[in-house]
Amino acid sequence: MASDAAAAVTEHCGVATRAFLQKEYAESLVHIQHGMARALGAARDGTPLDAHLVERLGVLRYTACVTVYTNAAARTRALAALADRPDDDAHAVRALLEAPAAGLYTQLWWESLEALFGTPRAPHPSSLEAPDTAAALALRVPGALLTSAILGALRLDTCAHSGAAYAQAADGTAARGCARQTCEMYLGASLADAPAAPDAQATYARVLRLYTIQVLGLHLHDWTYARDVVGYSRLPDDAKAALLTELDATATHAAARAQRERAALEVAQQQYEAEKRRRQAAPPPEAVADTEAPPSAPVLPSAAPSTSGAALRRTASVRRRGSGRAGGAAAQAPRAEASRGAAADGAAAAAHSRDAPPDTHAAERARIQAYLARRPSEPVGPVVHGSPQDAYVRYLWFGGLRRRAAVLLALVLAAVLVRAARARIPAAWARVAGQRVWDTLRMGTQVTYM
């Protein structure tokens, strides 16, 4: 039974962790609640699960619940997603997210103790105030789970209240935040009974540091009391000196940050006042609107000749070059006539542009198209006709194949002559002739590829 519960809790922890990393908070919280329900059931049956597994589940639960609770957008999305789920665990998660900050942390804290140690059997207390027997259990809580609980309580306190106003509340109960109560519960139990856990000294130093620097110092701004707490703590002298040095450095940094914030606020206030005075000294908008604007100078048409003549001359020049390549010397008279016609057209267009008002782009394009329509269509160059086989033959013929074919033919003839003369000449002369033919073949091949 315990092994099945442990396997189920391990599976729920893995699924919840992946869902939390993917920001699927509703799914993550439901699986965490499933795992906590199995852990609480095993503890009530008298067979609590392994402390390391419960510690892992508790750290994940504190992290997920506090993250969703302190983020308004994530909390709204999670509640909307949980509203469609009718199971009991989803209802329990909705109750946690809708509870006050102190109620949320109180339930998380006592359910963690019950999953670890099987107590209390009675309904969960409504506050962190607990009898001495329950307070002593804080010494047995694993260090990682205790640290996560304190940091989560500090975030919930910061979300519910704000800094100095939280510490100076008139009713006297606001300063007793969840983080402070948890730290004082642990430190008070450690003074009454020294913790027996192996890492108890490291956990004590970690909790004392969180209590003095984070809770008393940065959250409640009570640096004097924080130094007193370090003074009468059970830390060694060197650890006390190091913690006091860190406490003083943190206090100095916090004071400097407050001064910087005040200076920035003063600068912003001065800029606001200066802008306000400038706007008050400026004339009203009605006076500016009633002021007449000076008449603008009329836009005169440009006296420069239109660019249509130049465009037409360039077109005639292109056509003259094409006709020169196609017709040669026989086209001199048409080119001269085309040049004179283009010049005349350009002069007429320039005169028209000087006499007429400025043309638009559409009119200019229509005039050029009309001129081109009057010109005869002349081919730019000769059109080559032929079949694909003719094109391939021309490519082979003009691609350097003649030189290679000539070299190959000479080599074949030399080989035939050598073979025919081998029977009439001695063997030594045949070998010499063969070697020279081979050298000629090799050199011819190299020259061909070069």
Describe the structure.
The protein is an all-alpha fold and 450 residues long. It has three domains: 2-228, no CATH class; 308-374, no CATH class; 400-449. Helix content is 74%, strand content 0%. Helix 8 (143-160) runs antiparallel to helix 10, helix 8 (143-160) packs parallel to helix 11 (200-219) and helix 10 packs antiparallel against helix 11. Mean pLDDT is 75; it is low at 163-174, 297-308, 322-334 and 380-384.
Question: What descriptors fit this protein?
Answer:
single chain; mainly alpha; 450 residues; elongated
Please tally the β strands and state the result. 0
N-to-C series of helices and strands: HHHHHHHHHHHHHHHHHHHH
Total tally of structural domains: 3
Computed structural class: mainly alpha
Shape type: elongated
Uncertain runs: 163-174, 297-308, 322-334, 380-384
Distance N terminus to C terminus? 88 Å
Q: What quaternary form is this?
A: single chain
Q: Mind summarizing the main beta sheet?
A: none
Number of helices: 20
Mean pLDDT: 75
DSSP strand content: under 5%
Rg calculated over all Cα atoms: 49 Å
Summed up:
The chain contains 20 helices and no strands. It is 74% helix and 0% strand.
Any chance you could write out the topology, listing elements then pairs?
Blueprint: H1 2-21, H2 25-44, H3 51-70, H4 72-82, H5 88-98, H6 101-117, H7 132-136, H8 143-160, H9 163-167, H10 178-192, H11 200-219, H12 223-231, H13 237-281, H14 285-290, H15 308-327, H16 332-355, H17 361-374, H18 388-398, H19 401-421, H20 427-449
Region (Disordered): 269-362
Biased composition (Basic and acidic residues): 352-362
Biased composition (Low complexity): 299-315, 328-351
